[in-house]
């Protein structure tokens, strides 16, 4: 069984405060090996209720994740949009996206190390709640973090990849998992979802799932062919309720 072993990673943090309504926005740089990564951190104007870490889709950290971070901040949490590809990654099209995600799927220890380094570099001292969530590739990354035993109070996957790699399981999972998924998702179908939920049951993982009828992959991505407003709104409401538990 592949377990998460914390690495002795040195995270050098460089913050550049930017003007932004409702609090300050920072970019935070950190290193894993010889690669440099840059997360985006946004704080509420008052004391944060906790931290919500957002893992990006396969096209990298961009305006979509920043929008979601702003929505998280409006709920009173510090929002951290993690970077798993690095500041020098070329992200111009599908082949680039496949290269970056494929490299991490092939090297699960590196996958975990990049997430953990970003979390460590942007941690909030005394945070009462920490939740990891992600969209599409980020949803798969979130489940990777759950299997790795990341110290979180919850994990949320929005239309994410649901497969469990050979040799992995959820025996080290530290928090409840919420799966938000479309019934017509061609990437991870209902058979995949049933298999995942069976794993949760067998391994005693606290979990819940919401299924959106007719929703396909990327149902939260406005402007995409798969966008479904009702599913987008209901899944966000489910996240808000999950954070309030």
Q: How many structural domains in the coordinates?
A: 1
Number of helices: 6
Strand order of the largest sheet: 1-2-3-5-4-6-7-8-9
Largest sheet: 9 strands, mixed
CATH homologous superfamily identity: Alpha/Beta hydrolase fold, catalytic domain
**Helix amount:** 25-40%
CATH class: Alpha Beta
Shape: globular
Distance between the termini: 31 Å
User: Oligomeric state of the chains?
Assistant: single chain
Order of helices and strands: EEEEHEHHEHEEHEH
Task: Report the sheet-strand fraction.
Answer: 15-25%
Kindly provide the radius of gyration, computed on alpha-carbon positions and rounded to a whole number of angstroms: 17 Å
CATH architectural designation? 3-Layer(aba) Sandwich
**Secondary structure tally: strands:** 9
Helices and strands in order:
Blueprint: E1 15-18, E2 25-32, E3 35-42, E4 51-55, H1 63-74, E5 78-82, H2 94-106, H3 108-121, E6 130-135, H4 137-148, E7 154-158, E8 177-182, H5 190-203, E9 207-212, H6 229-243
Parallel strand pairs: 4-5, 4-6, 6-7, 7-8, 8-9
Antiparallel strand pairs: 1-2, 2-3, 3-5
Helix pairs in contact: 3-4
Please explain how this structure is put together.
It is built from 6 helices and 9 strands, in the order E-E-E-E-H-E-H-H-E-H-E-E-H-E-H. With 245 residues, the chain is an alpha/beta fold. It has a single domain, classed as Alpha/Beta hydrolase fold, catalytic domain (Rossmann fold), CATH 3.40.50. A 9-stranded mixed sheet has the order 1-2-3-5-4-6-7-8-9, with helices on both faces. Helix 3 packs across helix 4 (137-148). The longest helix has 15 residues, at 229-243. It is globular. The chain starts with 14 loop residues before the first strand and ends with a helix. Mean pLDDT is 91; it is low at 1-21.
């Amino acid at each position: 069984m592949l377990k998460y072993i914390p690495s002795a990673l040195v995270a050098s943090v460089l913050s550049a405060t930017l003007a932004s309504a409702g609090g300050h926005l920072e970019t935070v740089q950190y290193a894993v090996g010889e690669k440099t990564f840059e997360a985006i951190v946004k704080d509420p104007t008052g004391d944060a209720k906790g931290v919500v870490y957002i893992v990006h889709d396969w096209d990298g950290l961009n305006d979509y994740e920043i929008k979601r971070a702003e929505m998280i901040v409006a709920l009173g949490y510090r929002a951290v949009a993690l970077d798993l590809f690095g500041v020098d990654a070329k992200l111009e099209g599908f082949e680039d996206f496949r290269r970056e995600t494929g490299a991490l799927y092939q090297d699960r220890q590196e996958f975990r190390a990049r997430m953990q380094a970003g979390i460590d570099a942007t941690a909030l001292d005394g945070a009462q709640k920490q939740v990891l969530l992600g969209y599409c590739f980020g949803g798969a990354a979130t489940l990777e973090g759950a299997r790795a035993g990341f110290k979180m109070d919850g994990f949320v996957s929005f239309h994410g990849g649901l497969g469990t790699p050979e040799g992995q399981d959820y025996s080290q999972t530290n928090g409840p998992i919420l799966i938000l998924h479309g019934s017509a998702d061609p990437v991870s179908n209902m058979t995949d979802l049933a298999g995942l939920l069976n794993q949760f049951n067998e391994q005693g993982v606290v979990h819940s799932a919401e299924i959106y009828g007719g929703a396909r992959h990327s149902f939260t991505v406005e402007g995409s062919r798969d966008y479904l407003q009702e599913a987008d709104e209901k899944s966000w409401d489910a996240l808000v309720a999950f954070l309030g538990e």
